[in-house]
Amino acid sequence: MSDIFNKLLVLRTPGIGPAKYNELIRKFESLDAVVAAIGIDADVRNNVLREMDAAHSMGIKYISDDDDLYPWNLKQVKNHAPVICVRGNLETLKKDMVAMVGTRHATAAGMKIIADLAQGFAEHNVAVVSGMAIGTDTAAHRGALRATGNTQTVAVLAGGVDYIWPVENESLYWEIVERGAVISEMPVGFVPVATNFVMRNRIVAGLANRLILGEADEKSGSMTTARFAIDYERDVWAIPSHPTDLRAVGPNSLIRSGAAKLCMGINDFWEIQKNESNPKKKSQKNESEFNLIDMIGTIPVSESVLTELAKKTVSEIKSELVVLELQGLVRKVDGGYVRA
Fold first, then answer.
1. What is the pLDDT of residues 233-278, one digit of tens each?
2. Spatial separation of the C-alpha atoms in residues 51 and 225, rounded to whole Å
């Protein structure tokens, strides 16, 4: 743990990130020499000790890039995170991974495609990596979790590995901790700002052998992640969509330019025996699961917010909420609806 401690001392020093860290290692030729040369502030040392104590109490592990558990793909990225925090099943880090990203405001059809792809990959022993945002990310994680077994999905967070965001996905967070892994390079307890999400995106792209882009605006964070994957020479696929929808601009443009391959479904990767026992029932289940209930967590969400997120009418939302209440999946409280 002394090696981890010293690495954290350097990385938690203001103004030092992965690039500066590597520069210092090259200059002073050893970690101990760097620690001695930069003169660690007492506040930094105390903060690192408190952070490590908090991590230990929550079962959070630190994985250094010289550890066999450090993901191989990520280690190949220039200026990768020297230390990552992991909460969950460490065996997940050893698996082949596929990244799936897209807009938070995905359509029900778009989320269903992503969820089905994620389930297919998980069933073929490939962990699904995403950023745990609502919409596409949620569909990817939940699709992977439909497969049996553990180590099926990885969530990369912009804040500390213990900082659950968005709060609507609290239940999803704990499912991922139970059956996969949550990862961050940021300090335990860290509250993210906008720039941290770009840093998060480079890790999402770096972890995976390939990336699949769903619906995404041209200037979205998902497109940034796709560009990282292209820079890392990963295999990039994109799911086409209707050209009049702004959410189609991202994937369609990558396909047109030749930067991404056309993704039509899981059969692009494996021939999978479809379960046709009751396709209508399965389709209805997926649309409900990924278009409404995944937007409801422990924080009350109003009907008007759900209407905007799901892109449905108020009457449609009310009808679905009645069904979910009768099924015992949600309940109404002051301020909106929460998971039951």
1. 999 999 998 888 899 999 999 999 999 999 999 999 976 444 433 4
2. 29
Q: What are phi and psi of 235, to 5 degrees?
A: -80, 115
Please tell me whether residues 200 and 322 are part of one structural domain.
no
Q: Is 64 within the bounds of a domain?
A: no
State whether 179 and 310 are in the same domain: no
Cα separations in angstroms, 265 against 130, 237, 241: 18, 10, 13
Question: Do 180 and 244 share a structural domain?
Answer: yes
When divided into structural domains, the chain yields a total of 3
Q: Which range marks the domain in which residue 221 is found?
A: 90-268
User: For the segment 152-186, what is each residue's pLDDT rounded down to a tens digit?
Assistant: 999 999 999 999 999 999 999 999 999 999 999 99
Query: If phi over 0 gives left and psi between -120 and 50 gives alpha, with beta otherwise, what is residue 249?
Result: alpha
Q: Contact, 205 vs 232, CB < 8 A? A: yes
Q: Are 207 and 74 in contact (CB under 8 A)?
A: yes
Q: How far is CA 246 from CA 91, 105, 218, 249, in A?
A: 39, 11, 8, 5
